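DM between two lab members

TW: hey, do you still have the DNA repair protein Rad1 entry open?
JB: yeah, one sec
JB: this one, 370 aa:
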Amino acid sequence: MASPPLFTAISTSARQLHVLLRCIAFSPRAEVQITRSGIRFSVEEARVLQGLTFLDKVLFSTYQLKVDDEQDTIPTFSISIVALLETLQIFGISDSSSSSRNPNGGFSSSYGNAFNAPSLALAGTCRITYQEAGAPLTITIQEGSVTTTCEMNTYEVHGEYHDDGGIPLDRERLCLKAIMRSTWLHDAINELSGTNPSALVLNASNRTAPYFSFEGEGGPFGDSTVDFLPETKNEPTPSGLRGRKQPLVAENFVVAPPSGTHGRVRQRYKFEMIKRAGRAMALASKVSLRQDQQGVLSLQFMIDLGDGAATMGGGRRGDVDGNIGAPPTPGSVAFVDFRFVPLVGDEDDSASEVESGDGLHADDDFEALN
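TW: and the structure you got?
JB:
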């Protein structure tokens, strides 16, 4: 008699899994780590870009992992994320694009045509089974009386990142932290795309203008800049921010350089790498932007899995620790994290220029992908 599988999980919505995984499908392979609290998928490109998403166990109606009491995970393996996405959409999952998203992020409850009907978007029940280490990962999709089973080869992972399992972000030495509506970031990147730049320059200060801007450099049609102003004629800067200004688009904005330095935070990144996060930008309701003193940039997106209610106004939801607004309903939101290594080589690119400012506050950012 066959032994029970090492891991089994059942989801009633293959669409949720498909949407989250497609956000990081910029490379053919994904590393998979199954833990007691959920499944972590990691995709990287040339060791300078990494995308991570965490499928929390609350997304599944059944979640069983058979490991020893002293173990919290099973050996990491890799699979073809392309094959996984093809399997999840076997019954015709509708594509959630920026044209159908809620203006504040998340999924729109309206459907543009008959082929986007809710019954197709849900795509039935998804069962994930992993019999033992080294065995294929089995995906079973059931819609009514029709069942499709796919066995995907798993591969041994050679070489691993250090630190927390990804491109290292030094949370103790952050020089920039900001939380803003994701659509503002998405629109800014789209605006800069018009000049086809080769590099994106992140420019920030809490003392002198420009306080927060993105610049597109090296394009054949010239350079361009999107500047998020701290005040307008109709919306004066709040009195609490006098002497320490922040963009109106940001909920939280902190520039905190090392002691004894002066200047501003200014760092360059390959523009094509930033665009890899475009799908997550379009779907998310909020984004937490962090940059450490080595120039590593983290964009962590909060994606609403319901009707797009996680907006910046009333009824605001927060991260898993309840640091931003009220805590979200379990399974109502998910987080996708992108990390970028900066461009180096030129004199201005070798390190971040930073400016003296206020200290960091540990409760300003999402921390869902630990």
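TW: got it. The chain has two domains: 7-156, 171-340. The mean pLDDT is 77.
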